[in-house]
Design brief:
heterodimer; A: six-stranded mixed sheet; four-stranded antiparallel sheet; 12 strands; B: globular
Chain lengths: ~110, ~110
Amino acid sequence: GNSVTQMEGPVTLSEEAFLTINCTYTATGYPSLFWYVQYPGEGLQLLLKATKADDKGSNKGFEATYRKETTSFHLEKGSVQVSDSAVYFCALRNNFNKFYFGSGTKLNVKP
Amino acid sequence: NAGVTQTPKFQVLKTGQSMTLQCAQDMNHEYMSWYRQDPGMGLRLIHYSVGAGITDQGEVPNGYNVSRSTTEDFPLRLLSAAPSQTSVYFCASSYRGGDTEAFFGQGTRLTVV
């Protein structure tokens, strides 16, 4: 089957700290992988994506690399800001065009 | 370009009442879907549609109906609201093929008392 597992939160960091949010997936075929961000009271917004193995998605200082050998798509940022506080969702889209989402990881960044 | 528009943003229902959550997109996307978001459970798929006239059940379809008479609209109907349906509901749309992302509405916060 298809599923996405991401680390439970909340994750609390100080401003300028390094961020890693782990995400692993199970899928048949060759899925596309996504990270979405949700700010309080809003819908999900695409943060970055990768469509094939070894691709790196990047946006606003965030990066994630599609690792087929470890079925992972970990989200990283070198220096977080208070404005990065949000809930982050890892997701995959399988070959039948269905999306599967992780349970979300809440990030709190303190000044 | 409005993207995905959901109405209403907030709603309070009494147990047993029915209502329709509206979702419209202006991007000519074939694929539309409804999710509910509950604390600690991420997003769970309720129903989805791959085009006008075609709908299918997702992970948690019980208590909900959908129809897709046009490409743009995908309403979600609660037949007889129950407290277990208290949740935040999101509509999403995407192109049918390949690696494109889903676009989400702002959500509807529903409380059933």
